Amino acid sequence: MSGRARSADRVLVTGGAGFLGRSIVEDLTRRGCSVAVLDDGSTGDLHAARALGADVFVGGVGDRQVLESAARGVVRVFHLAAIVGVARVAADPGRVLEENLRGARAVIRFCEERRLPLLFTSSSEVYGDGGADRLLSECDAPGFDLRAVGRDGRAAYALSKWIGERLALAAGERGLPVVVARPFNVAGHGQSEESGAVMARFAAAALAGDPLAVEGDGSATRCFAEVGEAAAAFVDLLDSPSARGEIVNVGSSVKITIRELAESFVRRARSRSPVVVGARNAAAVSFIRHRAPDLTRLERHIGWIPDAPIEKCIDGALRHAAERGRACRSAGS
Predict the structure, then answer these.
(1) Which single residue of 15, 138, 254, 301 could bond 247 by disulfide (Cβ 3.0 to 4.6 Å)?
(2) What is the pLDDT of residues 9-43, one digit of tens each?
């Protein structure tokens, strides 16, 4: 069966009420597809998913009955559902490992039974701290600390994604049309501050006039892909026959230091917020020194790479934070 998006195709997006999931739903809808979303609503915005025209099914992917209902008539599946977010991942590493693997097994088995083309969403967390300032390749060995899995949510999350990759690729060896996407930092409109994502935190702080906390000396670097471009890359990957059976990094090559990012938020928000370098912040991500993707494989498979300017991500994050602020004020009045 072809995985190429065609008008009137029915497509399932698990975790489709989440930040990246909603953008994938929007991209698919724009291409003329009918979209079903399966999401438990724990962190996603079910109302926003419905507003995009998706048929929303509330529940977990591990519930076979709910999965079958959501997947009725679909011809392709994007699997994003997982325990995510800094606080939720840190709270219970064992549950992260158990639930993410339970969902991965259920979706992979379901797709294999029906030969439904599958995009399995992994994570750049499998690379661990990234090491030196170099591009991280899909051929690199996993970099997370196996010894820390029982106590470190990040390590447990990385392990759950790495094992999920192995399960997906093993199904591919048995004939399932599957591609594994490893997203790096994705940012822009729609990302909540509760996720712990650095751009969402900086946006909220800049608009409130609060300090923007930068851990370390601020020289750590990231490459941020704009969420709409990342979503389009996901859809194009499942459309690409050459990507079948491969792991593919999805991200941007546009690099910025965390200190420069904080300063950019202050400027673009016209904020008086100070940038505090060396702050201790449990949600900060800059303790990971460098993380940048090698996008050679992505460009080979889809013919392009995300390259939106960082300002588009910043402005999207600021717009979302402003919208949430207005909504909160309206609810309280």
Answers:
(1) 138
(2) 999 999 999 999 999 999 999 999 999 999 999 99
DSSP category for residue 137 = P
309 Cβ contact list (under 8 Å, min separation 6): 254
Query: What backbone phi and psi angles, to 5 degrees, belong to 7?
Result: -55, 135
Domains of the chain from N-terminus onward: 10-191+225-253+292-308 (3.40.50.720)
Tokens read off for 281: 């912040």
Asked if residues 41 and 34 have their Cβ atoms less than 8 Å apart, the reply is no
- DSSP secondary structure, 2-59, as one string: -----TT-EEEEETTTSHHHHHHHHHHHHTT-EEEEEE--SSS-HHHHHHTT-EEEES
Pair of tokens at residue 43: 């962190």
pTM for the full predicted model? 0.93
297 phi and psi, to 5 degrees?
-70, -40
**Is the distance from CB of 190 to CB of 181 less than 8 angstroms?**
no
